[in-house]
Write a structure and sequence with these properties.
The complex is a heterodimer. Chain A is mostly helical. Chain A has helices spanning 3-14, 22-29, 36-61, 63-72, 76-103, 110-148, 151-158, 162-194, 196-210. Chain A contains nine helices and no strands. Classes of the chains: A mainly alpha, B mainly alpha.
Chain lengths: 211, 164
Amino acid sequence: MDGLDLLKKDWDKESSKKKLSVKDIYPMLHKKSSSIVKILFYISLAELVFWVLVNSLPYFTSDSYNERLDLVFQNDYILTGLTITSYAIILLFVYLLYKSYKSISITDSAKNLMESILKTRKIIKYYVLYNLIAAGLSLIIGFYYALHNTPNTAIDFSNISDKKMALIIFVITLITAIFVLVIWLFYKLIYGLLLKRLNRNYKELKKLEMD
Amino acid sequence: MTKELEHSFVELLEKHQNIVHKVCRLYTNNYDAHNDLFQEITIQLWKAYPKFRGDAKFSTWMYRVGLNTAITLYRKSKRSIKTQDFQGVEFKIKAEYYDDTEEEQLKVLYKAVHQLNDIEKALVFLYLEDKDYREISETLGITQVNARVKMNRIKTKLRTILNP
């Protein structure tokens, strides 16, 4: 007898076992899900809140930060423009995330379901990437303005020799690189653990198509 | 309204619960993990239930949600308490009904099926449930040809395990 035929015979007999009553099932409906989509949703929510806070907290809480901002951006239009753009981008990401969460459907085929989850994860990735790039750019621009536009620091830096300047730039680059690396590793770990199974199964389905 | 919905859902699930048990049986190998997956599939079924339209068969709809939860959404339970293996328990019970060789063969077969990867298990599951290749391909999102080819490979694999 074929292996699977033997299994089938047993499989059907197996059906009658392990009965749960209606009473057993009711409480199950109200338990909390631990599905990866739910966890992904919470992570993306945390990301949104975290970066919005990082961007706006100093603006609201620190007077000296505002003074410096005013000093750097003497042109008010630039500052307003930048603020509006950054919030517009956040809103765009919120919209994209909402849309992609809506498209995740458990009744889809396995492959489509996996693809829509991976797409959502990609949007979160782009959001983080955007924030990192924006943070990096504002660091560089801030540094540039500090060198050229602020009278105090301009004097300070003019006294520094080329050798020391090179060292300062090297140290700043190194710190930025370590910072980016730590964040990158952090994400690799979180999403790696969360989506390990999904990625493996998605690859397996893709492999079937290649054969 | 919610109460009515809940009631109709629980009744349907109670009637068709074996489908979920069978999915759990393939994808887990101990009692706690089985219950954990059963719980998660139930939540997913319940969440999707308001969108369930009567034109599809409840059981067919369950296959999809159950397999998708097992393959994609479910994270293995952290409580991996080592309890008695399912097979062990079942085969002790069955010993009275089956002759030794068949029992032994089944034991080996279940072990082999458990070693397949998640996608292969899904194929075996749908095959054991008498689903045709059209339904298998639609459930997994692969072509019928690919489903057939893969299924044949799994059959060969299992045959070799059984008759080395």
